[in-house]
TrEMBL record:
Gene3D superfamilies linked to this entry: Vaccinia Virus protein VP39 (3.40.50.150)
GO molecular function, a single term: RNA binding
Keyword S-adenosyl-L-methionine applies: yes
Family annotation (InterPro entries): rRNA_Ade_methylase_Trfase_N, SAM-dependent_MTases_sf
Organism encoding this protein: Oharaeibacter diazotrophicus
Record's keyword annotation contains S-adenosyl-L-methionine: yes
Domain Ribosomal RNA adenine methylase transferase N-terminal as annotated: residue spans: 47-177
UniProt-recorded name of the protein: Phosphatidylethanolamine/phosphatidyl-N-methylethanolamine N-methyltransferase
Keyword terms of this UniProt record: Methyltransferase, S-adenosyl-L-methionine, Transferase
């Protein structure tokens, strides 16, 4: 309950009622599909801001958000300066997808499978991608599937552009691979419930 109060107190223009509604929506969805949802509550503002900070709104192309849920990171990306029409949110849960489309009418919400990322982007004619920001619960998936998602995401991006992922774990969802991609990690974001870190993957520059 203290975490809920902390999260509600940090909301800017959102009412306490809306914050509580999102919390309860997450809890219900997690209870029915824990492996798909992964978290019992949305990302907090501090975590969402830390993820969005890895994105430069001036980069050409769209920003692809994976597993946006109720839109905490979506809001942070918009506040960061990403134009709504340059944000593509891929959400597997149809209830969350409907909510996102209603809450952020300028954002392109795609109801699809982020773990088939290339196929999903191709089906919806998504062009150049500037960055990928993921809130997917990667630790609910086998190591090979996590690896393949990061590898596919980085293959879509220009070298040096970020694939941003958060987790609550002590170890990275996918380790760095020498010669393929680097990995940076943030400090613990203690204001989040539970505390989390941001892992940022970047593919290695192409050989000259």
């Amino acid at each position: 309950m203290h975490g809920l109060k902390r999260r509600a107190a940090g909301a800017d223009s959102r009412s306490l009622k809306a914050v509580v509604a999102d919390e309860m929506r997450f809890i219900r969805t997690w209870a029915s599909k824990p492996l798909t949802t992964g978290a019992v509550s949305p990302s907090g503002r501090a975590l969402a801001r830390a993820m969005a900070a890895e994105v430069d709104p001036a980069w050409p192309g769209v920003v692809v958000e994976l597993g946006p849920g109720t839109g905490a990171v979506t809001a942070a990306l918009l506040a960061r300066g990403v134009a709504p029409d340059r944000l593509v949110a891929i959400e597997y849960n149809p209830d969350f997808a409907t909510l996102l489309a209603r809450r952020y009418p300028g954002v392109r919400v795609v109801e699809g499978d982020a773990y088939s990322l290339g196929r999903t982007l191709a089906l919806h004619d998504v062009g150049e991608v500037a960055a990928i920001v993921s809130s997917l619960p990667l630790f609910t998936r086998p190591p090979l599937q996590r690896h393949d998602l990061v590898a596919e995401g980085l293959s879509i991006l220009e070298p040096g552009r970020p694939f941003v992922q958060f987790s609550y774990a002590l170890v990275p969802p996918v380790p760095a691979e020498r010669g393929r991609w680097s990995l940076d990690v943030s400090d613990w974001i203690l204001m989040n419930l539970p505390p989390a870190r941001v892992w940022t993957y970047r593919s290695a520059p192409l050989p000259s």
